[in-house]
Amino acid sequence: MYVDDDEVLTFLMERLFVRAGYQINTFNDPMVALDWIARPDTQVDLILTDYNMPRTNGIEFARALRAAGTNIPVAIITGHITEVLRQQADQLGVYGIVYKPDSADGMFQEIDRMVGELMLHADSQA
């Protein structure tokens, strides 16, 4: 799942994810994404969210997900990684932070790494 308030970027990211072989649901409104994720038939392996959004930020979105009882791994995508962001992400158990201006290849290498780790962990739990 990908959440970003920028509609053009969301459209482009959706195309990149599909081209990279991922099934992806995208949202421009984090509150709509929260409602969707709460549905009992929703299956998501990883939530990628932009950090800087007008109504909320990636940390607050991750906090709302946790408050709603969602344990799906969350990764924050941002163009500006700070030590404060890292600390907040660690405290919330955010799975990773992806640097946004990186190349699409670099970003997908990081996402592939995260998804691979999640799949290995899921297999070891089965």
TrEMBL record:
<dbReference type="InterPro" id="IPR050595">
    <property type="entry name" value="Bact_response_regulator"/>
</dbReference>
<feature type="domain" description="Response regulatory">
    <location>
        <begin position="1"/>
        <end position="115"/>
    </location>
</feature>
<dbReference type="InterPro" id="IPR011006">
    <property type="entry name" value="CheY-like_superfamily"/>
</dbReference>
<dbReference type="InterPro" id="IPR001789">
    <property type="entry name" value="Sig_transdc_resp-reg_receiver"/>
</dbReference>
<dbReference type="GO" id="GO:0000160">
    <property type="term" value="P:phosphorelay signal transduction system"/>
</dbReference>
<dbReference type="Pfam" id="PF00072">
    <property type="entry name" value="Response_reg"/>
</dbReference>
<protein>
    <submittedName>
        <fullName>Response regulator</fullName>
    </submittedName>
</protein>
<feature type="modified residue" description="4-aspartylphosphate">
    <location>
        <position position="50"/>
    </location>
</feature>
<keyword id="KW-0597">Phosphoprotein</keyword>
